Amino acid sequence: MVSGGKAEAAASEGRLIGGRYRLGEQLGAGGMGAVWAGLDVLVGREVAVKEAYVAQGPSRVERILREARAAARVNHPSVVTVHDVVMEDGRPWIVMERVHGESLAALLERQRSLPEREAARIALCVLEALSAAHARGVLHRDVKPGNVLLGADGRVVLSDFGIAYIAGEESLTRSGEFMGSLAYTAPERMGGRRPGPASDLWSLGVLLFQMVEGWSPFQRESVEGTVGAVLTAKTPETRRADALASVIADLLSKEPDERPEADRVVRALRGAAGEGAGRHDVPAKSGGNGRRPWLGAAAIAATLVLVFLATDGWPGGGRKQPSADSSPTSSHTASPTPTVTAAKGYVHVREDEFGLEVPARWQRHAQNTDGQYRYTKGSYELLVVPGRDSVKAYPDGLIEYQRNDEPELQPYREATWSTASGFRLVEVGDRTLAEGQFTWQKDERGQEVFARNLVLLVDGRYHVVLVRGPASERETVGRIYERAATTYVATESET
Which PANTHER family does the record cross-reference, listed alphabetically (predicted)? Predict the structure, then answer.
C-alpha cells in the first residue's frame, strides 16, 4: 500500500525527521512522494521536506536519492536548493529550500494564459536553470508547469529532478519503462533514442506554447493520442504569440538537431521579456572539460543603471592611474566617509581613486603591484581595480575583456571546470558597463568559487569591481556585489 491520504498526512504533521526537521502541512503529493512544509529546528529555517514513497521496492529509494544528487550538482538561483537528505524509517527524505508562492500549473489553471512578456521572463529563468544543469551533465527530463515554482518575490525555480539523467551514470529506467509527462516529452525520447539537452529545450517549447496560447499543444484525451501527437502531429499555429512565435516553432522541431542552440533562445526570450534594449548578449565561455556552455543571464544590469543614474554615481572623468609596477601603499588606510551614510552592515570607504561601500569589519589590504584594492573576510573577497588597463591595450570591448583578458578572472579561465552566465552590456549616456557571473572549481576536492564581476568603461580605461566567495553562498556574494557595484564612484581629477 502506497503511503499517503488525508488521515496519514494529518498524523504526520508535527513529526520530527532526523531529529531536526519538524513537519508542517502537506504541500502536495505525486507519484514519487509527498512534499511537506517544514522547520529546521536547529537553525530556525523554513524548509520543504520531500518524503519518498517506497512501496514499489528499493528502486524508488534510489530514484529519490538520484533527485537529491542531481539537484545538489546544480548550484543556480533558479534551481531548488537541496540542504540535506535524511534516512528515516528506511526511506529517504529530501530537505529543500522552501519557495513561497505557487506552481506555474496552478497559475495557468487559474488564468489559462500569460502575457507574452511574463511568459518570456519565466521561460528565461527555466532556461538558465536547464543550462546550468546541462553544464553539469544533468538532464531534467520532466520540464512541465507543475515543476516550475513561482515565488512571491518574482523568483522562478525549477524543481523535481526525480527522473533526471546524469551523464556518466547508468540510467535507472528499465527497458520498456517510460518516465516523464507525455505531453511535454520530446519525440526522440518517445522513440527510445538517447535524450540530450535539446530534449529539455523541446519541453521548454511546449511550456512556452502553453503559457502564451493557454493550452497544451500535444495533450490528447488518451495516452495513445498524446504519444501520436508528439511523434507525428504538426505543431499547431500560434494565435496569441508575437515576438515568441518563431522561437516556439523552432523549439518544437521534431528533430533535435533542428532545434535552436540555447544562446539564440536566450536572445529571443530577453527581447520578448523587454530586456533587450541597450544590451548585447554573447555566448558564455565553456569550461575546459568540453561540456556545453552554460548560457544564461541571472544578473540584472538595469538595476545598476538605475541606481547609478539616481545617485549621479557614474565615475568621474579622471583618476590617478596606478601603474602596473607601483609599490603597495600600506600607509594609506580606507576610512569611513563622514558625509556619506552607508547601508546597515556596511561602511563607505574612500581611496585615492574611488569610493564605495564594503561590509563592516572586513580587512583592507594596501593596493598591490597589480593595481588591485582588496577587502577580505574569510573566504570572501572584494576586488577593485580602478583603471589599470586601457581600451587601447585591450580593444575587443568590455565583455571580451572579462572573458579573455581580465587578470582577476584568470583562475576561472585556468580551472579544470568552469562556467559563466549573465553577460550584459549596457550603454547609458557616455558611460558603458558590462557584467557577468563566473563559477569554477577551485581544487581537486571539488570546492567551487562563485564570482560576480562588473567592468565600467571610463575615459578609455577599464574599472573592475569583483566579488567572489564559496559557490554555496551565491546569495551572500550577490548582496555584497550589488552594494559595492551600485555605490562605486571614481574620484574626479583635480584640474
Answer: MITOGEN-ACTIVATED PROTEIN KINASE KINASE KINASE 20-RELATED (PTHR43289), SERINE_THREONINE-PROTEIN KINASE NEKL-3 (PTHR43289:SF6)
Q: List, for residues 131-150, the tens digit of each pLDDT value.
A: 988 887 788 888 999 999 99
Question: What letter would DSSP give residue 460?
Answer: T
Fold exhibited by the domain 301-490: Protein Transport Mog1p; Chain A (3.40.1000)
| pLDDT classification of 490: cutoffs 50, 70, 90 | confident
Residue type for position 203 = S
Q: Which fold has domain 6-97?
A: Phosphorylase Kinase; domain 1 (3.30.200)
Indicate the length of the chain as a whole number. Answer: 495
Q: Would you tell me the crossing angle of helices 197-213 and 116-135 to the nearest 10 degrees?
A: 170
Task: For residue 471, give the nearest of 453, 452, 448 by alpha carbon.
Answer: 448
Q: What are phi and psi of 385, to 5 degrees?
A: -125, 100
- Which CATH architecture is the domain 101-272 placed in? Orthogonal Bundle (1.10)
Binding site, residues?
A: 50
User: Half-sphere exposure (CA, 13 Å, Cβ side) for 233?
Assistant: 16
Q: Round the CA-based radius of gyration of the chain to a whole number and report it.
A: 25
Q: Three-state SS string across 375-432, please?
A: EEECCEEEEEEEEEEECCCCCCCHHHHHHHHCHHHHHHHHCCCEEEEEEEEEEECCEE
Of residues 249 and 490, the one with the higher pLDDT is: 249
Annotated binding site for ATP, which residues?
50
> Helix, strand or coil for residue 226?
helix
Q: Give, to the nearest 10 degrees, the angle between helix 262-272 and helix 116-135.
A: 150
For the chain, which residues make up each domain, given as ranges?
A: 6-97, 101-272, 301-490
Q: Which of 40, 84, 89, 142 does the annotation list as catalytic? A: 142
Helix then strand then coil, % of the chain, to nearest 5: 30, 25, 40
In the structure grid, which three cell numbers stand for residue 131, read together? 543550462
Is 257 noted as a catalytic residue in this protein?
no
The set of cell numbers assigned to 60 is 524508488
- Cα–chain-centroid distance for residue 119? 17
Q: Sort 431 into a burial class: Cβ within 10 Å, 0-12 / 13-18 / 19+.
A: middle
Percent of the chain with pLDDT over 90: 43
AA letter at 111: Q
